[in-house]
Amino acid sequence: MNKQSLSLIFLFALIFSCKIDYSFTGASIAPDVKTFSIKTFQNFAPLASANLSQTFTEALKDVFISQTSLKLLPSNGDLTLEGSITGYTITPNAIQGDQTAATNRLTITVDVKFINTKNEKQNFESSFSRFADYETNLNLTSIEDNLIKTINEQLTQDIFNRAVSNW
Length: 167
What we know:
Elements: H1 3-17, E1 21-22, E2 28-29, E3 35-38, E4 42-43, H2 52-67, E5 71-72, E6 79-95, E7 101-116, E8 124-135, H3 140-164
Helix pairs in contact: 2-3
C-alpha cells in the first residue's frame, strides 16, 4: 500500500470515529441528541403584528426540521428553545438633505433561552435582533408580511447557528 492509500484510510477512520454528527448546514449535533422542542415565543413587543408570535415560532421549527434529522416534540426535547419577542420598532433610516427619511427600518428583537439536556455547557440565554429596510413611500401594512418573513429567516438562522453550530 502506498502512502496516499494509507492517508485516505486514516482520514476515513478519523471521520467515522468522531462522536459528533456533522451536516452540510454546519450543524454539529452529538449523536445522543435525537429530539428538540420549541415553546411558543410570546409577543411582548408593542405595535407588533398579532400573528408575529406564531409565524416566528413556526419559522424556528422549520429551520430545525429542514436542517437537522432531529424529531420535533411538543415538550421536553433533548434541545429546547423558548423565549419572547421583545422588540418591534420602526425607525427612519437614510436621512436625506431635506431632513426626510428615504427609507424606514423595521427591527425585530427576540430573547432566546436554549437548553441542551445532553450538554449543559452549550446552554445560553441571548438576545437576537435583525432588520429590514423599506422605502418610506410604501405603506407598511402592504409589505409588512414580507418584511417579517425576511427578518424571521435571518433571526431563525442566527438562533439555529448559535444553538447547534457552536459559533
